[in-house]
Amino acid sequence: DVDIRLDAYYENELSGKIINISPISSNIGGVVSYELTVKPETGNGPELLYGLSASLTITTSGVENVLFVPIQSVYEEDGKSYVDFVAEDGGIEKTEVTTGIFNYDFIEIKSGLNEGDTILISPAQYNIPGSLGIQID
């Protein structure tokens, strides 16, 4: 799915689909890019005219109603993923988690944590005073 915002009509968002991605990349200034063709859905916005510029938001995958945490709070040991959380007695406990999709900032937790659990953002630093914690809402 693609969300399209025309610079000339920025308040109107259009929807579309990617119909072609070039297999050949270009590298300009160290930035690799691929040419793609987007087909806007008809009848959902202003008329598209040749020469208009646009900003695209491309959704490659997504999930709804999931538990997610900052990616730096998850670490691996022996091929398994873990999160350190604050137990009811105030101590720190390591719990194994099953992870899902992720981006640069967050990672989905499929099992091992519950909504309302308080986790450590930087587990490697939990013994340092002032370590950051976060409650999952």
Describe the structure.
There is one protein chain. With 137 residues, this protein is an all-beta fold. The protein folds into 2 domains: 2-58; 67-135, conserved putative lor/sdh protein from methanococcus maripaludis s2 fold (Beta Barrel), CATH 2.40.420. It is built from no helices and 11 strands. A 5-stranded antiparallel β-sheet has the order 5-9-8-7-6, with no helix packed on it. The two termini are 28 Å apart.
What key attributes describe this structure?
mainly beta; 137 residues; 2 domains; 54% strand; four-stranded antiparallel beta sheet; conserved putative lor/sdh protein from methanococcus maripaludis s2 fold; five-stranded antiparallel beta sheet
- Enumerate the strands of the largest sheet in spatial order, edge to edge or round the barrel: 5-9-8-7-6
Rounded to the nearest angstrom, the distance between the terminal CA atoms is 28 Å
Q: What CATH architecture label of the largest domain applies?
A: Beta Barrel
Query: Which topology of the largest domain does CATH recognise?
Result: conserved putative lor/sdh protein from methanococcus maripaludis s2 fold
Helical content (DSSP H or I, runs of 4+): under 10%
Pfam families: RND-MFP_C
Subcellular location: Cell envelope
Main location: other
Keywords: Coiled coil
